[in-house]
Amino acid sequence: MSSPASSAIVSAEKEKKAAAGNSVIAALFLTSMKLVVGLITGSLGVLAEAAHSGLDLVAAFVTFLAVRVSDKPADHEHPYGHGKIENFSALIETMLLFITCAWIIFEAVRRVFFNPREINPSLWAFLVMAVSIAVDVSRSRMLFRAARKHHSQALEADALHFSTDVWSSSVVIGGLVLVWLGQNVLPQYGHILQKADAVAALGVAFIVIFVSFKLGKRTVDVLLDKAPDGLPQKISETAAQVEGVLNVGQVRMRRSGASFFVDMTVEVDRNLSFERTHTIAESVESRVQEIAPGADVVVHTDPREMERETMAKRIRAVAYRSQMPVHNISMHENRGRVYVDLHLEVDDHLSLQQAHDMASHIEKDLREDMPEITQVNTHIESRGTGMGDGQDVTSHEGVLVEKVKKITDEIAGQARCHNVLVRRKGDKFSVSLHCHFEKDLSIIQVHNLSSRIEERLKNGIPGVDYVLVHAEPAAR
Fold first, then answer.
1. Selecting from 3.40.50.720, 3.40.50.970, 1.10.530.10, 1.20.1510.10, what CATH number does the domain 10-223 have?
2. What is the pTM of this model?
3. How would you list the strands of the sheet with 247-256, edge to edge?
């Protein structure tokens, strides 16, 4: 059972082939009719139209073949598909039209200045041109509808040709009317009006040259992978609006037949999870396909440091130069001013004055290194260097261990505390413990609970001077 997507593709292929096939039949009919009437009447305008229609027949047949081939799926040798065969066929049409125009201009100039010919503007000449206009109007509308619906440049080229045929046929009719007037109404101007047919042929040639040049330029642009005007910028602006995109890098586009291929890079926060990054890329793809329906979009995510993260690293680097470890760095911005809060670890044997001098020194260094920082607030805390050589007394302090577990479980939950280690130096105790927390809690929530446990243990158990809580996610 075929999917709706595959059914739509098959339907599109049938519509494009039908439009191209009808165009071939119409071109064959018009070419034959114009050629016969042009030879009977001797009208260069009609013969020019016959030649024009003859090349339209060739172009329509090339388009028919191109449409059949272009819908073939991509393979190992053509990873981007076969769509550019449509663009190549449009280029062939353009070259054929230029050749036709060169012959028409040559023959028209020869008849106007060197070898005038007698023209017989019979009823058949007018009739064939009127029929040509009716057929061209009908098939150009049909092709334009199919081209817009299926984004086919080959069908669009055909439609453009046949719409200009309407104007060129009208010019030929005008030339025949002037010749008829010169023969039947204004014989005194007959020798001048007799040249109107050749002048009309020149008009046809110049119309075709103008249209062919525009079509040829567009075709060459596609073959050379020129990006559509304004579309990359629009894609970049749209992608930048997707939540999570820090910046849009290079956007590359190419067109192959009716298909667009877009390769682009977006910058995202390097701390995001793989799943979140993938979601951002899919959102960008979806937004791009709203602008270019059916486009094949490849989004490369480039991890980047956030501006605040970069500032935090610089703060640590400045502190490290003075051998001052810092942590819990937080930044706040208000009306363009940046305020920094941080914890500074100092040896516990220092006096308050010495620790304050160190804090003032690092605050001064930070403001000099990063002028955008307006104020630095430093929280001084002990590095715990005085407890490093304490004796392990865990096995002798069973009562203390049980108190630690009880207080910790009251805050964290039942049976959450384990691996309690107690060290003693003099009459002071240093306690470290492992505690399970719900794994869905944020770091801030875990930090607040750990701080409550530390404070309760220090205040609730005499002699406890230092507490370290090692947080672990609870198993479910």
1. 1.20.1510.10
2. 0.42
3. 247-256, 259-269, 296-304
